[in-house]
Amino acid sequence: MLELDCTGRITRYFYLGHHAIMQDVKDTIYSQPQQVSEFRFDQSVAEVFPDMIQRSVPGYSTIVDTIGQICARYAQPDSNIYDLGCSLGAASLAASKYIQSDNCQILAIDNSPAMAQRCELHVQAFKAATPISVICDDIQNIDIKNASCVVMNFTLQFIPPEQRIDIMHKIYAGLNPGGVLLLSEKISHDTEQGNDLVIDLHHEFKRRNGYSELEISQKRTALEDVMRTETFEQHKDRLTLVGFTDIVRWFTCFNFASMVVIKG
Ligand SMILES: Nc1ncnc2c1ncn2[C@@H]1O[C@H](C[S@+](CC[C@H]([NH3+])C(=O)[O-])CC(=O)[O-])[C@@H](O)[C@H]1O
Ligand SMILES: O=C(O)C(=O)Cc1ccccc1
């Protein structure tokens, strides 16, 4: 039987149908010198994703587990919880573990077929109390309605900046009064000196987690055009513009932040 920790790391080797899921596969994607191409959430990334994200995002397990707890506080009976850019469903699984409200459903969305397929395996193995439906589609095509919680855990940063405002309008419109957006992002600091510091501290974190200088620099190149970070002020201005009244930044470590954004 599969066992997952709260971040989706697989702690036992198992078979589901004819799919064999490896035990905590190590991310070595950028370990050899290569002609670096744009970062994509393909099969090779999906296979190592729990290890990659855990070693790359400071506080990831705390963030995921706390998102689950915050969802439980805000989940309204008979409502929808959306996990946009769910990857392997870590936040959905945490939410399903903690939610006590009746008749909620979790909609876990990802446009990467490799991620969505693997997410489905995790969901089946986990046997969530609150049902989780995995949908392979682009956030742009998803209707958001009767939502009490919308989770975007490190997903908005992969949406082209000019498309972000429309997504935020859609989320605001689809949230019920009193609902929340749980937004985590890699953040740029608004001074050059401060930005250099948080980037350097993040790289030091990755080094301590076993990534080499080559891995750090090749991944940085791969992410350059696909992951476009903004400052906290830019996020705050856009959230305020679409109508959110309260932005609570509850987690920060270096250039990573997580917010509860409340629709009053
Ligand atoms: N337009 C889009 N539509 C749908 N999905 C998308 C889109 N763009 C990117 N994605 C998906 O967003 C996810 C971002 S990872 C989220 C981690 C997860 N939330 C976690 O809690 O473990 C963050 C990271 O790897 O830093 C990937 O799975 C993409 O396929
Ligand atoms: O690895 C990095 O440098 C990051 O910024 C985080 C990350 C984690 C997983 C996929 C893409 C980016």
TrEMBL record:
One BP annotation, GO: methylation
Highest taxon in the source lineage: Bacteria
EC annotation from Swiss-Prot or TrEMBL: 2.1.3.-
Residues where S-adenosyl-L-methionine binds: 60, 85-87, 110-111, 138-139, 153, 220
Keyword list, A-Z: Methyltransferase, S-adenosyl-L-methionine, Transferase
Record-annotated Methyltransferase domain positions: 81-179
Molecular-function GO terms, alphabetical: carboxyl- or carbamoyltransferase activity; methyltransferase activity; S-adenosyl-L-methionine binding
Record field: catalytic activity: prephenate + S-adenosyl-L-methionine = carboxy-S-adenosyl-L-methionine + 3-phenylpyruvate + H2O
Oligomeric form and interacting partners: Homodimer.
UniProt record similarity statement: Belongs to the class I-like SAM-binding methyltransferase superfamily. Cx-SAM synthase family.
Function, in words: Catalyzes the conversion of S-adenosyl-L-methionine (SAM) to carboxy-S-adenosyl-L-methionine (Cx-SAM).
Protein name (Swiss-Prot/TrEMBL): Carboxy-S-adenosyl-L-methionine synthase
Native source organism of the sequence: Paraglaciecola psychrophila 170
